[in-house]
Design brief:
- The chain has a single domain, classed as Competence, DNA-entry nuclease inhibitor, ComJ (Substrate Binding Domain Of DNAk, Chain A, domain 1, Sandwich), CATH 2.60.34.30.
- It is about 15% helix and about 35% strand.
- It is built from 2 helices and 9 strands.
- The chain has a 5-stranded mixed beta sheet, with no helix packed on it.
- The radius of gyration is 15 Å and the shape is globular.
Length: about 170
């Protein structure tokens, strides 16, 4: 398997990729969870963000490819994102919610600089693959250095497609 690998913490059960140039984080400092979820959906429909449920809290290993891989996994989903500043950020719910709540929190946060990856501007089809069932009893015991939890294939599109996320994959709203 080729592609750059990123390690990212997840204390809430969500990971995301975001175009930090076009993403609008501010929902006000008195938001509630449902309001923030609605905001995420709006940003996904505008192709500025793709956020997905991970199934549990963990430190995840995410491999990013700029070509189609033949990898299959436990589950997968397709979506589209538009790159406007030559880079995307792999991030988590914690950083997105902090940026929504506090004006002085900018994405990427200082501790997430290594989670930025360069990618030419354009519209991309994103294939998100979760390799293993997150409810496997041994998922947290696996050695982080030897596993890959998520694969992200980013394919430049010649024209826009309708793979717009209107809900957060792998997250059940109550």
């Amino acid at each position: 398997m080729d592609g750059k690998i990123y390690d990212i913490t997840d204390d809430s059960g969500f990971l995301a990729i975001v175009d930090t140039n076009s993403y609008i984080p501010d929902t006000g400092n008195n938001w509630y969870f449902e309001q923030l979820i609605h905001h995420f959906k709006t940003q996904m429909q505008d192709r500025k963000l793709l956020i997905w449920g991970t199934g549990c809290e963990n430190t995840w290993r995410v491999q990013v490819h700029f070509k189609e891989s033949k990898i299959t996994g436990f589950r997968e989903v397709l979506g589209t994102i538009t790159v406007t500043c030559g880079q995307l950020l792999l991030t988590n719910y914690e950083s997105l919610s902090m940026a929504s709540q506090f004006e002085d929190v900018q994405l990427p946060e200082k501790h997430q600089q290594e989670l930025l990856f360069k990618i030419p501007n354009g519209d991309y089809l994103c294939r998100m693959i979760q390799i293993c069932d997150p409810n496997q009893p041994d998922i947290e015991k696996q050695e982080l250095k030897t596993r890959v939890d998520f694969m992200i294939d980013l394919l430049l599109l010649s024209k826009r497609t309708q793979n717009i996320w209107t809900s957060i994959p792998w997250f059940q709203e109550s």
